[in-house]
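Sanity check. The docking grid for pyridoxal-5'-phosphate depends on where the pocket ends up, so I'm generating a full predicted complex first rather than guessing from homology. Inputs follow.
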Amino acid sequence: MEYSMSGGMAVSGNTLAFVEEELGRLHETSLYNEIRTLESEQGAWVVIGGRRLLNMCSNNYLGFAADPRLKEAAKRAVDRYGVGPGAVRTIAGTMSIHDELERELARFKKAEATIVFQSGFNANLGTIPVLVGRGDIIYSDELNHASIIDGCRLSRAEIKPYPHLDLDALEDMLKADADRPGRKLIVTDGVFSMDGDLADLPGVAELARKYGCISMVDDAHGEGVLGSHGRGIVDHFDLHGQIDVEVGTLSKAFGCVGGFVAGPAELIDLLKQRARPFLFSSSLTPPEAAANIEAVRILEADDELVSRLWDNARYFQGEMRRLGFDTGKTQTPITPVIIGEADRARDFSRALLEAGIFAQAIGFPTVPRGTARIRVMISAAHTREDLDFALDAFGRIGREMGII
Ligand SMILES: Cc1ncc(COP(=O)(O)O)c(C=O)c1O
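Predicted complex below; grid placement will be based on this.
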């Protein structure tokens, strides 16, 4: 290492030259993320750059992120437990509020037990390496979320992606591997986050049973959205007890942050001993845990918000199709508005911003090249007037850009 006369460290050769090059490439290909900063709370309307904008791209499906009941619960928890957990769960970071959240979630999900993580991402990273390891096989839908992909990589098991939703192809793979020793895991998103389509979970459960595989679903976009009172995709397909491992997030419809796994009590017990983000990263803060408990209680008591979310989604998607937009194959409130090339999607998003609408463009590598889109996220917090305001702007900009 060299030091300059002034005492600072001299750079011998520019080892970080690649950073500038890589950033340059992202800009050139219109794939550089323009990060917008909200100056208000999360809601149907937000303030960005001093302007009030209609928010069409958050995962705040039920409007819980700024719900006064959740805010109050969080404030009460701060008064009682303080702001931080102080440690990881296995040392001194388990407070009664964490145990309570896990019990409430288990009741809500109709599962034997749950374990709470700091995020849905961590839930996948922590869980998959406990289920399988070296010498085992994972069958993973090719469009699974990044956190599943990373969890699979961390496990060191052999990863075999199967074509999106193609259970015939999956069965061929399972047949071919029938004599291979070791554990086998089939893992899928419940709702695919970029397209809004659903996994054929009954089919996955059936194949897992037939070929002796562990079955796992990541229901991040189904929690609070699908099933009775938003209990998720397992409830939607009435598969209670038939999927081994259910991962959920508290960062979308629940309006807070956090993730969890619901499943058999013994599995949850083992995850609490082995899942690395649980063992080596501090737990949810008390206000987060409390707000999540409040969200579960509200959902259990009343599914009015879930109904409103679906009414809004049906209305908006129907009108968008009538206008001539390609909204893909969504089966949920996720509404992809397919534009095509990344620069066109970026221009569309900028025009929407000018018109008072916040809706980010999404391009490669989050979605395949040539399918860049505006991913509209519908919320129960939107009023019919909000949706009409958005439809007006989408229609006008779509015509101006020759997209419809
Ligand atoms: C399918 C899926 N799994 C996991 C996550 C991560 O959830 P969290 O934001 O709680 O980390 C997401 C969020 O984008 C997701 O869509």
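Relevant for the grid: Residues 68 and 358 are 23 Å apart (CA to CA).
Also worth noting: Residues 304-323 form the longest helix (20 residues).
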